[in-house]
């Protein structure tokens, strides 16, 4: 049992209460049950962290069970992607299971339901079925097929299983209560005909169980103790329990369904159907586009797995749905990368700086710290020469006292190098600056211990040596949606809020230590932000994705607007 009750969330409180009433700790078992009809998104990440987190906390097994009951939408690609995402987040499942593992047991139970008179074949159209279900304020009416004989129901059900009927001609319904105040209890569908091959069972089955029928019974067959769902399944709990009542055997673990609130993320959508739309209509390059709210997209963008776990822990779980600002996630990413990402120098909007009193043809290698947050990260050497690239915004010909970067007549320090003084510029005919000229103080080398090196100047600039610079494509990302809740107004197509400026591609110059950087590696480009090597990188071209800035500038922009 947990000892720090002050830190328990309401799900943990339920588990603790069950343990205190005698439920054996060794009987605890959880599950994460994704449907393999798309890639997992940030909402799934919270559910993954909840279920697997409980497993770690209670030293209990957690199953990965794919809800593969609709072959019309499911693919092996999605199964593989889901497994990859969970492993990347750092979790290990006890058993890899599938609802399709239980198709025979579910079918056998359904046959038993028919024989007991609590299930029947309905041959109405879906429109007629919807009409006879009634409304929340008026009771439903019985299907004209509700009192079919057991023999006819059994024959039709077997024919459905064997592919003798077209889709939509028949369904199997549970016979419960057409006047129930819970619409889900008004003879819910248990099976429908889908004449498509299944990614695991092939053409063996032509009927597939509905979620409400398959889910609780799969939990029961696996010995799951606590089945955790999002709030939209709260009304389903009564049906979940009714189905269990029909099959439960005393002495076995009876699963308990409990619900928690979704955590929606601002400036994103977390509907797999809508994410699929973005992919199919080519608003993004794929499920793993770094602008997507998918776990694959966040991984490609450079988010560390521990940052996502920290985010899930930070927002916690609750009983009420709310919108979490994406800046909370970005804060967690920044915190993690600050501890782990090596510091390097890159210039993304370059202008050439020539140190006129530095000997032509000379170069030297200067020591640079890899990460001040991690002493074990050590140091590297970066080349210095007469010609450097600096950022255009780091220079003004003339500037007031509040500008602490380079200008004519003012001194700044070059990171890990020397103090320089702006002397002049070379411009083209249109007045654009082609070169900045400066002089350096040879005695001011960083770390040399000389009096000149100890001299205080107000600005420090990053730079890259021109003859040693490595060119790279850098992809700068913004929010995919300009509206904080693009899915909030059902009268407006969410795609109307797509930000047309969500991606800018630029060419930058990097220090040569990055020449051998590999896909997935993360770095802090000093003074610019955190960046990750993209999978599009090859021997000819380095490609970097901007993961997140050094600080939250979006909040300031939104505040101004």
From TrEMBL:
It comes from Flavobacterium rhizosphaerae. Residues 29-338 form the Glutamyl/glutaminyl-tRNA synthetase class Ib catalytic domain. Residues 134-146 have a biased composition (Polar residues). Residues 125-146 are annotated as: Disordered. InterPro entries: aa-tRNA-synth_I_CS, Gln-tRNA-synth, Gln/Glu-tRNA_Ligase, Gln_tRNA_ligase_bac, Glu/Gln-tRNA-synth, Glu/Gln-tRNA-synth_Ib_cat-dom, Glu/Gln-tRNA-synth_Ib_codon-bd, Rbsml_bL25/Gln-tRNA_synth_N. The keyword Aminoacyl-tRNA synthetase applies. It is found in: Cytoplasm. This is Glutamine--tRNA ligase. GO terms for molecular function: ligase activity.
């Amino acid at each position: 049992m947990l000892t720090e009750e002050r830190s328990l969330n309401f799900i943990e409180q339920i588990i603790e209460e069950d343990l205190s009433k005698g439920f054996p700790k060794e009987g605890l078992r959880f599950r994460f049950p994704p449907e393999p009809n798309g890639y997992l998104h940030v909402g799934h990440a919270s559910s993954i962290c909840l279920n697997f987190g409980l497993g770690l906390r209670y030293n209990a097994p957690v199953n990965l069970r794919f809800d593969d009951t609709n072959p019309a939408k499911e693919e092996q690609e999605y199964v593989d992607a889901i497994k990859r995402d969970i492993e990347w987040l750092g979790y290990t499942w006890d058993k890899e299971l599938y609802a399709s593992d239980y198709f025979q047991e579910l079918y056998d139970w359904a046959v038993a339901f028919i024989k007991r008179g609590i299930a029947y074949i309905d041959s109405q159209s879906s429109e007629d079925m919807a009409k006879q279900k009634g409304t929340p304020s008026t009771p439903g009416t019985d299907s004209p097929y509700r009192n079919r004989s057991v023999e006819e129901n059994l024959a039709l059900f077997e024919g459905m299983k064997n592919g003798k009927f077209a889709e939509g001609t028949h369904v199997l319904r549970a016979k419960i209560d057409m006047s129930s105040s819970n619409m889900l209890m008004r003879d819910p569908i248990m099976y429908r005909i889908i004449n498509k091959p299944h990614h695991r069972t092939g053409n063996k089955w032509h009927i597939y169980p509905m979620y409400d029928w398959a889910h609780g019974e799969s939990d029961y067959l696996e010995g799951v103790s606590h089945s955790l769902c999002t709030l939209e399944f709260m009304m389903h709990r009564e049906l979940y329990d009714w189905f269990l009542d029909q099959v439960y055997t005393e002495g076995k673990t009876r699963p308990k369904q409990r619900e928690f609130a979704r955590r929606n993320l601002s400036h994103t959508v977390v509907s797999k159907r809508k994410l699929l739309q973005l992919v199919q209509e080519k608003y993004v390059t794929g499920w793993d586009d770094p602008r997507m709210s998918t776990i694959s997209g966040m991984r490609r963008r450079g988010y560390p797995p521990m940052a996502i776990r920290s985010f899930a822990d930070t927002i916690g779980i609750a009983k009420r749905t709310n919108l979490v600002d994406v800046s909370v996630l970005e804060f967690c990413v920044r915190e993690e990368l600050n501890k782990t990402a090596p510091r390097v120098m890159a210039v993304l909007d370059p202008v050439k700086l020539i140190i006129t009193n530095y000997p032509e043809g000379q170069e030297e290698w200067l020591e640079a710290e890899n990460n001040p947050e991690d002493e074990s990260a050590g140091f590297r050497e970066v080349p210095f020469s007469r010609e450097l690239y600096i950022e255009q915004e780091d220079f003004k010909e003339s500037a007031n006292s509040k500008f602490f970067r380079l200008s004519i007549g003012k001194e700044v320090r070059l990171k890990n190098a020397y103090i320089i003084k702006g002397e002049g510029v070379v411009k083209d005919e249109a007045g654009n600056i082609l070169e900045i000229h400066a002089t350096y103080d040879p005695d001011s080398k960083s770390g040399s211990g000389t009096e000149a090196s100890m001299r205080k100047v107000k600005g420090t600039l990053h730079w890259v040596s021109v003859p040693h610079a490595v060119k790279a494509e850098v992809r700068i990302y913004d929010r995919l949606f300009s509206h904080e809740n693009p899915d909030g107004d059902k009268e407006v197509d969410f795609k109307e809020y797509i930000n047309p400026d969500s991606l800018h591609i630029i060419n930058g110059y990097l220090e040569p230590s990055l020449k051998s950087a590999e896909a997935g590696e993360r770095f802090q480009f000093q003074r610019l932000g955190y960046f990750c090597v993209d999978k599009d990188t090859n021997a000819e071209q380095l490609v970097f994705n901007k993961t997140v800035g050094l600080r939250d500038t979006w909040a300031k922009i939104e505040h101004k607007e």
